[in-house]
Specification:
41% helix; Transcription Regulator spoIIAA; five-stranded mixed beta sheet; 4 helices; alpha/beta; 32% strand; 5 strands
Length: 124
Amino acid sequence: MTHKLLLNQHFLRVELSGALSRDGLWRAITDIEVLEASLDRTPDRLVDLSGITSRALTAQDMMAFTERRRAQVLKNNIRTAVFAATPADIGFARMFQTLNDHPQVTIEVFADELAAIAWLTRQR
């Protein structure tokens, strides 16, 4: 799995592609944490799953991922929009949304990328 982090004035775009794996996801999370630490404010984010070709994650992998995120204290509350274009990716995103109960993070899942961006960029 590969990932790209693209920071703009409104949000951090996280593009995941290839075979989604535990190791690839951990690398992406580590890079996100490093980027967040370098910023004055934790950015909202768009997680783009449209490049994922297969998934090799277990429920235990997802729990470990959400526990790692939950342990982080963010600089501010954030919103995460997950763009999932296929039914399998929507299911994966819903599992992530259900497991992630970080008090500073609000997560929504979108099948339409423009709707996800609109949600992220509208005023709170």
